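For the sake of clarity, the format in which proteins appear in this thesis is described at this point. The record quoted next illustrates the convention:

___
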Amino acid sequence: MNLEIINDDQVLPAEREQWITDLVAYAANRLDLPADTEMSISLITDEKIREINREYRDKDRVTDVISFAIEDDEDSDLPNFDELAAELEIPRNIGDLFIAPNHVREQAKEYEHSFDREFGYTVVHGFLHLNGYDHIEPEDEKVMIKLQEEILDGYGLKR
């Protein structure tokens, strides 16, 4: 897994970036993704995630994670990126996550989880969205949440 972590505002200590990389690699391995699959995670302030949420989702509030999957829209006129990547022999890029660690920290307190558990949940949840999983329909939610818990438990982030 080729993961770029952008932590320009230093909202998390730089040494935590390896932990994120390891968790994403574990999740990617669980989904059997090709080793050269690409994505990015931007660690940003609450103010920045609120701006993104307002601009792209019409929700004027802070949230923990926003995902922008490249292969998100089935009705798009864009080419099938999986097929295009294979044809051109380039890595598949699944998209970008924007995470607000300070908001995740607040949620960890609210849900009485450790920061690691809540942050891991946030990373894996967003990662699964980038890979086409969703929780809008009850049946899809069951599949996504089950897989999410299996990844977190397997990585050692049990409730």
